[in-house]
Design goal:
Elements (H helix, E strand, L loop, with lengths): L1 E3 L10 E3 L1 H23 L16 H8 L4 H16 L5 H28 L6 E4 L1 H15 L4 H14 L13 H10 L2 E5 L2 E5 L4 H13 L9 H25 L14 H9 L8 H17 L6 H11 L1 H22 L26 H28 L10
Helix pairs in contact: 1-3, 1-12, 1-13, 1-14, 3-5, 3-8, 4-5, 4-13, 5-8, 6-8, 9-11, 12-14, 13-14
Length: 402
């Protein structure tokens, strides 16, 4: 994430990182890894969803809930980054960059990341998830940037706030129309002969989140007053949280899963927080982007030794993403052997927690947290070296694609 020195001509612009954004992105990358370690190692992952209030515990619920911040913030900040990249590129150059990077991410999801999740070179299932949604959103954004800033913001907010009007629309069957609708707004699995396709991230609201993030980038241009930015971030953060509370309390619109009174007041509170991610509802988006604005408001200050380390992950998020999946998966081979399973049970034909061969596999939550810490510690020196390489080779444009 960059700022540009406005006094210089575009060809001579120098850049520097925005540390608070790198810190936020690094934090969510670390949290994201927790969710994926839980997927591959926790014994309940193969039995029930951690947000199932009839079976979960408080700590398990929040282990999953905290990771809800990752995908929307990653998408939102990608839009912000695009805006700031545009301060040193022409519209045409930015559009081409977004289009080609979006196509690259879609390719990565299908050809590489699916393989990393499954370790199955036969590709029995294609997992259409967050990297795909980022890529498709960038492709749409490559066209949207030609519109006025206000029009882009309006489109983004309409997609975020209005897509829940489509919650009751379903296209039955397994044919082309139902697959197309799943890509737009309904998470589904489709068998395709001997293979399958799992549409995990329906695209409509993600385009809105990235477009809104693009408009948000205006707050981080060099000419924008820092004190005014902090004030606006506080307004946006508290405003989004307040709006979440009010709309959620009314319990009519904003999420297909309404909250309900549970067996205890604590679980009723969990029900209130238990919003829908696939696709991200209006309430889910407010619940995650609101606190993120507050985070940015309070972290725009010099880094200390600890936060400097976290920003390293935020400066190389795609590199981290591409490394953490195979590392966790390789560790899961050892976990399978410890639990009496064959290592080959981790050669998957579907998402790991949907694999019948792994019935009875898994460890307690304490082990999950320990393995998560080990993953972060193992990846830190690699991310640090790659970050140093990127800094030393800024002239290599291809590095911006990884």
């Amino acid at each position: 994430m960059y700022t540009a020195t406005m006094a210089l001509p575009k060809a001579a612009i120098t850049t520097k990182r925005i540390q608070s954004i790198d810190l936020l992105r690094g934090t969510i990358m670390i949290i994201m890894a927790l969710d994926h370690v839980r997927d591959y190692f926790h014994n309940s992952a193969f039995v029930f969803d951690p947000t199932d209030l009839t079976q979960t515990s408080g700590i398990l619920f929040f282990t999953r809930w905290i990771t809800h911040f990752c995908a929307p913030l990653f998408t939102f900040l990608a839009g912000t980054s695009a805006y700031l990249v545009g301060t040193r590129k022409s519209k045409k150059e930015l559009s081409f960059f977004l289009l080609t990077r979006g196509l690259w991410l879609v390719f990565l999801e299908y050809a590489v990341i699916t393989l990393l999740w499954t370790f199955n070179p036969q590709y029995p299932v294609f997992l259409i998830q967050v990297i795909w949604s980022l890529g498709v959103s960038m492709i749409f954004l490559s066209a949207l940037i030609y519109l006025p800033w206000g029009a882009i913001l309006a489109i983004g907010l309409i997609l975020i706030a209005g897509h829940n009007l489509l919650d009751t629309v379903h296209v039955p069957g397994q044919g082309g129309p139902s697959i197309f609708w799943a890509f737009l707004h309904e998470q589904r699995f489709f068998p395709l002969g001997s293979r399958g396709i799992f549409v995990g991230y329906p695209i409509i609201p993600w385009i809105g989140i990235m477009a809104t993030g693009y408009c948000f980038g205006r707050l981080y241009t060099p000419s924008f007053d820092a004190a005014t930015r902090k004030k606006l971030l506080l307004y946006l953060g508290f405003g989004a949280i307040t709006l979440f509370i009010v709309i959620r309390a009314i319990n009519i619109y904003g999420d297909p899963a309404h909250w309900a009174v549970q067996r205890t007041s604590f679980f009723t509170f969990l029900s209130f927080l238990n919003t829908t991610k696939y696709p991200p509802s209006l309430l889910y988006t407010l619940m995650t982007l609101g606190p993120a604005c507050l985070f940015l408001a309070f972290t725009e200050k010099p880094l200390n030794g600890f936060t400097e380390k976290i920003t390293i992950f935020g400066r190389v998020p795609m590199f981290f993403y591409l490394l953490h999946i195979p590392l966790i998966h390789l560790m899961a081979f050892i976990g399978a052997a410890i639990c009496g399973h064959s290592w080959s049970d981790m050669i998957l034909t579907n998402w790991v927690s949907a694999s019948p061969a792994l019935a009875g596999y898994g460890f307690n939550l304490g082990i999950v947290y320990l393995l998560w810490v080990l993953v972060i510690l193992a990846l830190y020196p690699l991310c640090k070296r790659y970050d140093a390489y990127k800094r030393a080779h800024k002239e290599n444009q291809w590095l911006s694609y990884i």
